[in-house]
C-alpha cells in the first residue's frame, strides 16, 4: 500500500511538473501575437458566447432551488426577506462560479481535449510545426486567454440569471414581495461579492483550458487516447475547480 | 545536404533506431524502405525536429537539428516540405486555406498567396479544388493536397512519409509521377519513406533499407535490384519469411531470436 501511495505521489508530482513545463512553453509563445491574436476572437465566441445557454440553464434552476431552500430553512425562525440575502450571496460568491465552472469543465475542457487530441493523433499538430507554426501560439494561447477572459463574463450572466430566477421563485411561490427580496439582496451586499465570484471564474477558465490543451496535445494512440485525454481533462478540471474554490476562500475570505 | 549520423531513438523499452547513418546529397531522391515498425517515419521526423534523438544527430545544411534554438528551427523548417502519411490536412479549413496556411506565415500578400496556391494545386492536378473541404476528398486527392501544401512553400527539401500507402495501384502510380514531376519542376532534394518497392524504383536515385534500427544496405536502384543480401532480396521481392531461413538474420538479432523461439 505504501508503494502504491509512493507511486501515486511521484506520478502526481511528475504530472504537475509536466504542466508547469507546458505553461512555460505557452508563456514563451506570448510575443507571437500575430499568430494567436487572429485566433482569439473566434475562440472567445466558442468558449464564451456558445457556453451561455448551458450556464444560464444551470443558474436559472439553481436560483429557484436556492430561494425555496432558504424559505424552507428560515420559515418561523428568521425574517423571510433574508431569502434575498442568501440567494444573492450564494449565487454571486459560490454557486454561480462553481456550478458554471463544473459545467464548462465538461463543455469547454472536454471539447478542447478532444479537438487537440484528434489533431495530435492525425498528425495535424506535427503538420503545424513543419509549417513553422508554434502549436502553443496557434492552439494553446488563444484558448487559455479566451477561457480566462470569457469565463467571468459567462459567470456574470449566470449570476444575474440565478438572482433573477430566485426573485421570480420568491415572489411567485413564497410570501415575499419584490421590495422584501431586494431589501434582503442589498442587506449585506458589498461590491467585493461580485469581484470574488469573477476572480474565481477567471481562475477556473484558466485551469480548465490549460488542462484541456495540455492533455489534448499530450494524447498518444488513437481514439482510445483521445477518449482518455477527454475524460482526464474533465476529472482533473473538476478537481482543480474545487481546490481553487478552497484556495480563494482561504486567501480572500479569511478574517484578518 | 541531409546527414543522419549514428541516430539512436527509443520509446520506453523499445529501441527503434540503433545507429542510423546515411547522407542525402543535394538534388537527389533517397528512398528509405523497410518493414512496418522499423522506424522509417521516426528517422524522418528527426529531420524537422519533431523528435529529438537519444544519441547521434541529423544535420541539415551543416546545422545539427537537435541543437537549434526554437527560432532557428522555425527558419530551417521554412525550407523543408513534409508530406504526411495520411496527409494531415487541417479538417476545419478549405483546401485553399490548407495550402495557403504555410504561406500566410511568411507575410505574403493575398494576391501572391492565391497565385502560389493555384500553381501548387495545378502541379498536383487539382485545379479548382480550392473551396472543397478535406472530408469531401478521396484518400489519393488528400495526399495530393498534402503535397501541394508542401510544395507551395517552394522548399529546398521534401520529405515524404509513405506517400502511396493505402492507395490503389493506379492512384499510387499517379502520386509517384507527381513526385518525379515535382522534383523536375522544383529541383528539390527528397527523402521518401515507403515499403512500396514499385514506388521506390520509380522515384528513387538511391535506395536504403532500414532493418532492426540500422541501414542494412544502400545503393542505386540497379544495385539494390541485384543485391545478394538475402534479407534485402526477401523484402524487395515481397516473399514471406520461410521456416529455416533464420540464418539470413544476423546472429543475436531480434528476428533470429524470434524465429528460434517460434521453432521450440
In a few lines, what is going on in this structure?
The complex is a heterodimer of chains A (256) and B (264). By secondary structure, chain A is mostly helical.
Give a quick set of tags describing it.
heterodimer; A: 256 residues; mainly alpha; 9 helices; B: 264 residues; 2 domains; disordered C terminus
Descriptive report:
The complex is a heterodimer of chains A (256) and B (264). With 256 residues, chain A is mainly alpha-helical. Helix content of chain A is 85%, strand content 0%. Chain A is built from nine helices and no strands. Chain A has helices spanning 2-28, 33-47, 52-74, 82-121, 124-130, 135-173, 178-187, 191-217, 223-252. In chain A, helix 8 (191-217) runs antiparallel to helix 9. The model of chain A has no long low-confidence stretch (mean pLDDT 93). Chain B is an alpha/beta fold and 264 residues long. Chain B folds into two domains: 2-227, P-loop containing nucleotide triphosphate hydrolases (Rossmann fold); 228-264, no CATH class. Helices cover 38% and strands 23% of the residues of chain B. Chain B has helices spanning 40-47, 70-77, 95-104, 110-123, 139-151, 169-186, 197-203, 221-225, 230-237, 254-263, and strands at residues 2-11, 14-24, 29-33, 55-60, 63-64, 80-83, 157-161, 189-194, 206-211, 214-220. Chain B has a six-stranded mixed beta sheet, with helices on both faces. Chain B has a four-stranded antiparallel beta sheet with strand order 2-1-4-5, with helices on one face. The radius of gyration of chain B is 19 Å and the shape is globular. Chain A binds chain B through residues 28, 122-124, 126-127, 129-134, and chain B through 45, 48-50, 70, 74-75, 77-78, 80-82, 84-86, 88-91, 101-102, 105, 149, 153.
Helicity of chain B, as a percent range:
25-40%
Q: Strand tally of chain A, please? A: 0
Return residue spans of chain B where pLDDT drops below 50 for at least 5 consecutive residues.
244-264
Radius of gyration of chain A: 21 Å
Radius of gyration of chain B: 19 Å
The pLDDT mean of chain B sits at: 87
Biggest β-sheet strands, sense, barrel of chain A = none
Residue stretches of chain A low in confidence (pLDDT < 50, at least 5 long) are none
Fraction of residues in H or I helices of chain A: over 70%
Main sheet attributes: strand count, strand direction, barrel closure of chain B? 6 strands, mixed
CATH top level label of the largest domain in chain B: Alpha Beta
Strand order of the largest sheet of chain B: 6-7-8-3-9-10
**Count of helical regions of chain B:** 10
CATH superfamily of the largest domain in chain B: P-loop containing nucleotide triphosphate hydrolases
Distance between the termini of chain B: 48 Å
Amino acid at each position: 500500500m505504501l508503494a502504491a501511495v509512493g507511486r501515486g505521489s511521484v506520478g502526481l508530482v511528475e504530472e504537475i511538473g509536466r504542466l508547469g513545463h507546458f505553461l512555460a512553453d505557452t508563456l514563451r509563445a506570448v510575443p507571437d501575437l500575430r499568430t494567436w491574436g487572429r485566433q482569439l476572437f473566434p475562440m472567445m465566441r466558442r468558449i464564451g458566447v456558445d457556453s451561455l445557454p448551458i450556464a444560464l440553464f444551470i443558474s436559472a434552476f439553481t436560483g429557484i432551488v436556492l430561494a425555496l431552500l432558504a424559505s424552507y430553512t428560515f420559515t418561523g425562525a428568521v425574517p423571510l426577506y433574508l431569502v434575498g440575502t442568501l440567494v444573492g450571496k450564494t449565487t454571486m460568491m459560490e454557486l454561480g462560479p462553481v456550478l458554471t465552472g463544473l459545467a464548462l469543465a465538461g463543455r469547454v475542457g472536454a471539447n478542447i481535449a478532444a479537438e487537440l487530441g484528434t489533431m495530435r493523433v492525425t498528425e495535424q499538430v506535427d503538420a503545424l510545426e513543419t509549417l513553422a507554426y508554434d502549436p502553443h501560439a496557434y492552439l494553446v494561447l488563444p484558448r487559455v486567454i479566451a477561457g480566462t477572459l470569457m469565463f467571468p463574463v459567462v459567470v456574470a450572466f449566470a449570476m444575474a440569471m440565478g438572482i433573477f430566477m430566485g426573485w421570480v421563485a420568491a415572489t411567485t411561490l413564497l410570501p415575499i414581495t419584490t421590495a422584501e427580496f431586494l431589501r434582503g439582496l442589498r442587506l449585506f451586499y458589498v461590491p467585493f461579492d461580485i469581484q470574488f465570484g469573477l476572480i474565481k471564474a477567471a481562475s477556473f477558465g484558466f485551469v480548465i483550458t490549460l488542462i484541456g490543451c495540455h492533455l489534448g496535445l499530450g494524447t498518444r494512440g488513437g481514439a482510445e487516447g483521445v477518449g482518455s485525454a477527454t475524460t482526464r481533462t474533465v476529472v482533473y478540471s473538476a478537481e482543480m475547480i474545487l481546490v481553487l474554490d478552497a484556495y480563494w476562500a482561504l486567501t480572500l475570505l479569511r478574517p484578518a | 545536404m541531409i546527414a543522419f549520423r549514428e541516430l539512436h531513438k527509443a520509446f520506453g523499452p523499445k529501441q527503434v533506431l540503433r545507429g542510423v547513418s546515411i547522407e542525402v546529397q543535394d538534388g537527389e531522391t533517397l528512398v528509405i524502405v523497410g518493414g512496418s515498425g522499423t522506424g522509417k517515419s521516426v528517422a524522418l521526423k528527426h529531420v524537422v525536429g519533431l523528435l529529438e534523438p537519444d544519441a547521434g544527430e541529423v544535420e541539415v545544411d551543416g546545422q545539427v537539428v537537435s541543437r537549434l534554438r526554437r527560432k532557428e528551427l522555425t527558419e530551417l523548417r521554412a525550407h523543408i516540405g513534409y508530406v504526411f502519411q495520411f496527409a494531415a490536412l487541417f479538417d476545419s479549413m478549405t483546401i485553399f486555406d490548407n495550402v495557403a496556411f504555410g504561406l500566410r506565415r511568411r507575410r505574403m500578400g493575398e494576391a501572391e498567396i492565391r497565385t502560389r496556391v493555384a500553381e501548387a494545386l495545378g502541379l498536383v492536378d487539382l485545379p479548382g479544388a480550392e473551396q472543397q473541404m478535406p472530408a469531401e476528398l478521396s484518400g489519393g486527392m488528400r495526399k495530393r493536397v498534402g503535397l501541394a501544401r508542401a510544395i507551395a512553400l517552394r522548399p529546398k527539401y521534401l520529405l515524404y512519409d509513405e506517400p502511396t500507402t493505402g492507395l490503389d495501384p493506379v492512384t499510387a502510380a499517379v502520386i509517384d509521377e507527381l513526385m518525379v514531376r515535382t522534383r523536375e519542376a522544383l529541383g528539390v532534394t527528397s527523402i521518401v519513406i515507403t515499403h512500396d518497392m514499385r514506388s521506390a524504383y520509380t522515384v528513387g536515385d538511391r535506395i536504403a533499407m532500414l532493418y532492426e534500427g540500422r541501414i542494412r544496405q544502400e545503393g542505386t536502384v540497379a544495385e539494390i535490384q541485384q543485391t545478394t543480401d538475402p534479407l534485402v532480396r526477401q523484402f524487395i521481392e515481397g516473399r514471406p519469411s520461410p521456416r529455416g531461413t533464420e540464418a539470413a538474420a544476423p546472429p543475436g538479432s531480434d528476428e533470429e531470436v524470434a524465429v528460434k523461439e517460434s521453432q521450440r
